[in-house]
Amino acid sequence: MNDSVVTCQRLIGRTAIVTASTDGIGLGIAQRLAEEGANVVISSRKQKNVDAAVHNLKAKGLKVIGTTCHVAKGEDRQKLFKLAESTFGGIDILISNAATNPTMGPVLDCEESAWDKIFETNVKASYLLAKEVLPYLNKRNGGKIIFVSSIGGYHPSELLGAYSVSKTALLGLTKAAAIQLAKDNIQVNCLAPGIVQTKFSDALTSSEVARTEALLRIPLNRFGTPSDMGATVAFLASDDASYITGETIIVAGGMASKL
Ligand code: NAP
């Protein structure tokens, strides 16, 4: 992760929840939000990953706590919200970052069971997190919801067929929820990463052949980093983005996306 010093302090006094944040992009987002002054609640499925990430972020002097939360489990989502409220007094920012991809291949080759799992984690859990956090955001008279989609949501990858469709659904969820929640002073936006070097993208970034092929599609000629993603999310979570809602920002080094 890029350890350059962050001097913006746009999130002092805010509390953020970030799902799937003990590694990869979620960890990069959690770190950046905390560096900008937010109280951050990190989470993922495994206690040992939560313990390690909390330990490492606290060692950097950041205000972070953590708990286990499998985003598809209702009781885990409630535990996450309640921990944020009991520790930090409320919730201002939700980052819905968790996703799964149990299968590779073209969309119509996807087994029904894999399709259901992909949509349960990537789409349904995002919708439920957003719905269930509303009472907390309303208590603060507003807030921010940010979904993590993918460039595959715009350009479906043949290898990640069903996953890409689930990421397209998040673009629609962002628009629809933004319109519904505008009157409540809640802005809903979305991040669409390109190829970011994490465990999730290992198949695209680990071998020399795959790396070379993937880099040909990236004009900036490098993979994204979790801190690149954290920087954009911190902007969207801050008052600097208070007139932006219903939008998706593509952070992909110039990869082909949309006009
Ligand atoms: P990653 O490195 O594989 O992230 C893994 C993190 O997610 C770990 O903290 C893991 O911890 C947690 N996790 C996995 N399943 C979970 C679940 N069901 N509930 C809660 N936590 C869970 O993945 P990533 O690359 O950072 O991806 C993060 C997001 O960015 C995803 O939405 C992905 O679709 C999107 N994205 C990634 C790329 C890329 O190139 N990497 C590109 C476009 C979009 P535990 O094992 O402890 O649960």
List keywords for this structure.
259 residues, alpha/beta, Rossmann fold, seven-stranded parallel sheet, 44% helix, 14% strand, globular, binds NADP nicotinamide-adenine-dinucleotide phosphate, Dehydrogenase/reductase (Sdr family) member 4
Topology, please?
Blueprint: E1 15-18, H1 24-35, E2 39-44, H2 47-59, E3 64-68, H3 74-88, E4 93-96, H4 112-139, E5 143-148, H5 161-181, E6 186-193, H6 202-205, H7 208-215, H8 226-237, E7 248-251
Parallel strand pairs: 1-2, 1-4, 2-3, 4-5, 5-6, 6-7
The structure holds NADP nicotinamide-adenine-dinucleotide phosphate.
Please give the radius of gyration in angstroms: 17 Å
Give the CATH H-level superfamily. Answer: NAD(P)-binding Rossmann-like Domain
Helical segment count? 8
| Number of E-type strands | 7
CATH class (first level) name? Alpha Beta
Average pLDDT value? 96
Instruction: Please report which band the strand proportion falls in: under 5%, 5-15%, 15-25%, 25-35%, 35-45% or over 45%.
Output: 5-15%
Return residue spans where pLDDT drops below 50 for at least 5 consecutive residues.
none
Largest sheet composition: 7 strands, parallel
Spell out the helices and strands N to C.
Answer: EHEHEHEHEHEHHHE
State the helical fraction: 40-55%
Question: Per CATH, which architecture?
Answer: 3-Layer(aba) Sandwich
Bound molecules: NADP nicotinamide-adenine-dinucleotide phosphate
Q: What is the CA–CA distance across the termini?
A: 30 Å
Q: What gross morphology would you assign?
A: globular
Tell me the strand order in the biggest sheet: 3-2-1-4-5-6-7
Structural class: alpha/beta
Number of domains: 1
- CATH topology assignment: Rossmann fold
